[in-house]
Amino acid sequence: MDEARAREVLAAAEVLPGPASEARLLALGENAVFGAGDLAVKVGRDAELLGRARRELAVALWLEEAGVPAVRAAEPTALFVDGHPVTVWRRLPEPVRPTEPRDVAALLRLVHELPLPSSFELPPRELLGGVERWLRLAGDVIDPADAAYLRGRRDGFASAAAALTPHLTPGPIHGDALPRNVHVGPDGPVLIDLETFSADLREHDLVVMALSRDRYGLPAEAYDAFTATYGWDVREWDGCAVLRGARETASCAWVAQHAPSNPKALAEFERRVASLRDEDPEVRWYPF
């Protein structure tokens, strides 16, 4: 799904007060996110994301009732328009500053203190569940040998992760706890992109930032502020390498879906696969 297709779906959904052509594209990844007035609209990449979109709305209401700062839904149900899930949200004010890792840690502490919701079920964190779909969307643009290699990694790390003994008590997690999924507005940090909320090892949320330190150039002092705010460093846990390997596999495959329409994504995909094949944990990965 490119921007043009997403705008077609946005127009067909008829959820904005004005023309879809005038909505501002805020993000384009698993979803296209458009902003118009006080609304933000998410258009899912394909029909397989409908269930996740419905769960995200349930999560938003649950977090609101629990008093956890998070994005709020403007409409309680997800639409299904031309094969794409569409959800409508209250648009957040402009950020007052960039998000810092310590902001993420403070919100994770709140989430990790919550009991499981009683009105709906959170699934396990299927970190590797999207690998097959992302590789399929890449088609023959990527080397079949690379796709086969990632499938093998997926299977190996899925088995290893299932056998882990956690250090923290399992429960609700965000599932993709990166600074880009926290927005710092006038009233402080709030969680956004709630679609990966799960019931699983809390360590999943913490490995994200450890990987950012090693792969994405997060400064050591920023990582130290994250662990100080949360109160524990996941790198002390002997299962850290397994969850890190699983997330690296997923992050590499996620890039593949963008390769058919974005040469920079293809180059980044190839960089990531090569670093995994070479077993080099410090090769820098980049956005594209």
What are the salient characteristics of this protein?
288 residues; alpha+beta; 5-stranded antiparallel sheet; two-stranded antiparallel sheet; single chain
How is the secondary structure organized here?
Elements: H1 3-13, E1 24-28, E2 31-36, E3 39-44, H2 50-66, E4 79-81, E5 84-90, H3 101-112, H4 131-138, H5 144-162, E6 171-173, E7 182-185, E8 188-191, E9 198-200, H6 203-215, H7 220-230, H8 240-256, H9 263-277
Antiparallel strand pairs: 1-2, 2-3, 3-5, 4-5, 6-9, 7-8
Overview of the structural elements:
- There is one protein chain.
- The protein is an alpha+beta fold.
- 43% of the residues lie in helices and 14% in strands.
- The strands form three sheets. The chain has a five-stranded antiparallel beta sheet, sandwiched between helices. The protein has a two-stranded antiparallel sheet with strand order 6-9.
- A hairpin with a 2-residue loop joins β7 (182-185) and β8 (188-191).
- The model has no long low-confidence stretch (mean pLDDT 95).
